[in-house]
Design a protein that fits this description.
It is a single chain. The protein is an alpha+beta fold and 214 residues long. Helix content is 41%, strand content 22%. It is built from 4 helices and 7 strands. The chain has a 4-stranded antiparallel β-sheet with strand order 4-3-6-7. Strands 1-2-5 form a 3-stranded antiparallel β-sheet, with no helix packed on it. The longest helix is centred in the C-terminal third of the chain and has 37 residues. The N and C termini lie far apart (157 Å).
Length: 214
Amino acid sequence: MKRFVIILGLLLLSIPLQTKAILCSNEKKAQYQTLASNIKTSYTYTEANGTITFQVILSNIPEGFIIKDIKNGRTYSYQGNELVISNLQANTSYRFDIYTSDILCDDDTLYSHYVNLPPYNPYYQDAVCIGMESHALCQKWTQMTLSYEEFKQKVENSKITEEKPVPETPKEEVKGIYDYVLEFYLNYYYIILPIFIIGGIVIIYRYNKKNDLF
């Protein structure tokens, strides 16, 4: 008898769950999943005194939907088609699970939206970055793990390196055959020129003598 009561009790407990599974049809669940996937996510930020906080905006929320911030363990019931979640941290990933308040289909996560907030560099506007705005350590969305003194020293060292003149490498001159001929002539013109003059005189003399014979 005791065993029968236990089995009966388990059956009674399972009836609501089975009924839910039957009433929340696959077609209805698919519709809810489509609506949940169409929710849009974006973020803005507020910056002041070297600190930053982010706000995630979820929009196009269907009526009757529930949003759970998994990282912070907070649940937001439907309060309009847009939800703003504030005071979120830089360089952090957040997951927002979407549910429906329909009691027949409220057991399963319909869709999960992920938002990855970028890292923030609190030193990017420091005076040491003037003229070094393209340096990695002077970028706004750079992850900064250095202390201020370490950051300052690294940027200053980079500035000194950039300002130091780079010695020019002498270009090797490539010479052609005419360059070598001209160079040879200039080096030995006092020998070559008289030869050309004497040779020219001899040729002219022979030419004139040959003409005289006729």
